[in-house]
């Protein structure tokens, strides 16, 4: 949560910083601010509310500074207010800091600083950071060019928790310092100028060359140089990485909202994720992986661990792993997994799924699994993200930047990648040859079938118009369709604020059917030929009780039974979520639009959840 941006160069920093924040606003949007180094010292401009409000702050246009840091906030400690907004300064206004993350021991440090004469003006955990830097700076008797860097290093040694920090000081008008631990931060290398951001898309229009910092590494940026240091301030070398995404892929390109654009990008995202890894005639290849038949045969268990939508992709992955590879597979919510003392040893493979690669609970679960001796594999959409740097192995979805808070193309790309991973395992194990062959053929046809599926947009929009004022919506499915029901219920509540719940259709009679009353909307997904009749029977039970029904199916059902039937192309049921979820993504989108809500930035949410 929270987005940070930094600039050091020869141009006016403030418009670059605000522009960067606007692109990062999906990470948090309850307050925003910038700090620049001006001729007469540090200038701090901030307020609660959206980033665009910064344009109205008196004096913002007069800023001349060419070095600056900036922040868009998702409140953790302290309500959204001007005082709690970043950047923060120390009492002497010598150091300014923006922070993404949570300082867990801030109470203890605040007391220490208060005892040493410091005063606090906000309720944030962050305000201790500039003051602690000031404390160490003052204590240091050496007056060399690394004095500020040493103060920052000593400060970081005292901090517990997660942080991505940018620091500027009135004592050094030509440098900026950045450091990170368990929170995202990338450094963009320009020509005579350098950039900082929480993620790559926000600064893609300036550069394609990036440096990534490991935990507790420091970077000292000047206009035409970047020096890197390890935890003890020994100089280290870093390789620049070139990113292939282009700036246009992070823009709306004529769509009203990022979410709608990202829903429509799914055929391309799936095509790119399949890439050259899969072909009908050859074995599925993952150059990044070297799992042997003996290793896979010896596995007692696979864990698929993730949060939110990524966890729902994991549920589809479980069906495929168990059926194709016959390896027991469990799906865990990362925030539960990390505290439930899971049974893990060297015969366990732990797979972590995260679009952003920065989700705090997923990273913590990964670290725990490594400590317990399991091999770890990360699935992420962001090259070089924290999770991929921690894991033993990493493979990538190639969905391109996903900006809307509600995940769409990342989910379908994760499902297709998990299907290919299951195929790779099955081929290595020499299992399920016939099923694998069929599945490969179906996967290769998915981009075309997705294009076909997207044609339901107008009918879905009309159904959305009928139900947008409802208070409750229920989603039902069996088998893999139940995983899509869960994902669709999450999507609807996230962006439309309608209460939505999902149930395995067979569970209805065991309780939830008590909630069904006249006029309520029940949406069901039916793509598994073996289960379709059973689900139809369950739906008839709710129709009898007055429910309005929408059915998403690729089977021949009696359309007269239901209010609306959306027919999607047939495919192997393992990968059917990639098609069946699409009408329901569109439904959530259009309901949110009908209600006049901010689709891309729903209330209380942030794109990447980098705190516990
Ligand atoms: O970046 P991640 O995939 O780790 O994010 C996990 C969840 O926070 C994310 O999927 C969330 O549930 C989305 N807002 C769902 O649309």
Describe the structure.
With 612 residues, this protein is of the alpha/beta class. It folds into three domains: 3-249, Aminohydrolase, N-terminal nucleophile (Ntn) domain (Glutamine Phosphoribosylpyrophosphate, subunit 1, domain 1, 4-Layer Sandwich), CATH 3.60.20; 252-431, Rossmann fold (3-Layer(aba) Sandwich), CATH 3.40.50.10490; 455-594, Rossmann fold. The chain has 17 helices and 25 strands. The strands form four sheets. It has an eight-stranded antiparallel β-sheet with strand order 3-2-4-1-10-9-11-15, covered by helices on one side. Strands 5-6-7-8-12-13-14 form a seven-stranded antiparallel β-sheet. Strand 19, helix 11 (386-390) and strand 20 form a beta-alpha-beta unit. Helix 6 (266-274) packs parallel to helix 12 (409-429). The protein starts with a strand and ends in an 18-residue tail after the last helix. The model has no long low-confidence stretch (mean pLDDT 94).
């Amino acid at each position: 949560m929270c987005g940070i941006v930094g600039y050091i160069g020869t141009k006016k920093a403030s418009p670059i910083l605000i522009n960067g924040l606007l692109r990062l606003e999906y990470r948090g949007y309850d307050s925003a601010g910038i700090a620049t180094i001006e001729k007469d010292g540090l200038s701090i401009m901030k307020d609660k509310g959206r980033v665009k409000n910064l344009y109205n702050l008196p004096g913002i246009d007069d800023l001349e500074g060419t070095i600056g840091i900036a922040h868009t906030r998702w409140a953790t400690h302290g309500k959204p207010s001007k005082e709690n907004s970043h950047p923060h300064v120390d009492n002497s206004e010598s150091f300014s800091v923006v922070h993404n993350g949570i300082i867990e021991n801030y109470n203890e440090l605040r007391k220490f600083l208060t005892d040493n004469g410091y005063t606090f003006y906000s309720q944030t955990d962050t305000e201790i950071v500039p003051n602690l830097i000031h404390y160490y700076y003052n204590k240091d008797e050496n007056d060399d060019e690394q004095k500020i860097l040493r103060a920052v290093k000593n400060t970081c040694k005292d901090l517990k928790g997660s942080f991505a920090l940018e620091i500027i000081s009135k004592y050094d008008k030509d440098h900026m310092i950045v450091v990170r631990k368990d929170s995202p931060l990338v450094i963009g290398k320009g020509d005579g100028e350098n950039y900082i951001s929480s993620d790559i898309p926000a600064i893609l229009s300036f550069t394609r060359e990036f440096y990534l910092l490991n935990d507790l590494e420091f970077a000292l940026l000047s206009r035409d140089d970047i020096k890197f240091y390890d935890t003890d301030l020994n100089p280290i070398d870093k390789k620049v990485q070139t990113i292939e995404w282009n700036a246009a892929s992070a823009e709306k390109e004529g769509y009203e909202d990022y979410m709608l654009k990202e829903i429509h990008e799914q055929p391309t995202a799936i095509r790119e994720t399949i890439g050259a890894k899969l072909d009908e005639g050859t074995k599925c290849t993952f150059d990044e992986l070297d799992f042997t038949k003996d290793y896979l045969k010896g596995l007692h268990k696979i864990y698929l661990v993730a949060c939110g939508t990524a966890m729902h992709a994991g549920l589809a992955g479980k069906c495929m792993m168990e059926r194709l590879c016959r390896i027991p597979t469990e799906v865990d919510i990362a925030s539960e997994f990390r505290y439930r003392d899971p049974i893990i040893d060297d015969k366990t493979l732990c797979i972590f799924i995260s679009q952003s690669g920065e989700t705090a609970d997923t990273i913590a679960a990964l670290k725990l699994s490594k400590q317990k001796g399991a091999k770890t594999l990360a699935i992420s959409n962001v090259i070089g993200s924290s999770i991929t740097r921690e894991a033993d192995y990493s493979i990538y979805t190639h969905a391109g930047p996903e900006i809307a808070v509600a995940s769409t193309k990342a989910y379908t790309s994760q499902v297709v990648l998990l299907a290919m991973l299951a195929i790779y395992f099955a081929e290595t194990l020499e299992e399920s040859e016939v099923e694998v062959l069929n599945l490969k053929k179906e996967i290769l046809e998915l981009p075309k079938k997705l294009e076909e599926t997207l044609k339901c947009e107008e009918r879905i929009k009309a159904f959305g118009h009928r139900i947008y004022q409802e208070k409750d919506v229920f989603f039902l499915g069996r088998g893999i369709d139940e995983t899509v029901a869960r994902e669709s219920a999450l999507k609807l509540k996230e962006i439309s604020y309608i209460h939505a719940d999902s149930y395995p259709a067979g569970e209805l009679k065991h309780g939830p059917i008590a909630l069904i009353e006249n006029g309520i909307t029940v949406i069901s997904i039916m793509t598994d030929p073996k289960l379709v009749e059973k689900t139809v029977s369950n739906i008839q039970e709710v129709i009898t009780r007055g429910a309005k029904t929408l059915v998403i199916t690729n089977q021949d059902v009696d359309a007269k039974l239901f209010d609306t039937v959306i027919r999607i192309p047939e495919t192997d049921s393992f990968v059917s979520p990639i098609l069946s979820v699409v009408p329901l993504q569109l439904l959530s989108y259009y309901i949110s639009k009908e209600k006049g809500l901010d689709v891309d930035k729903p209330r209380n949410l942030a794109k990447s959840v980098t705190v516990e």
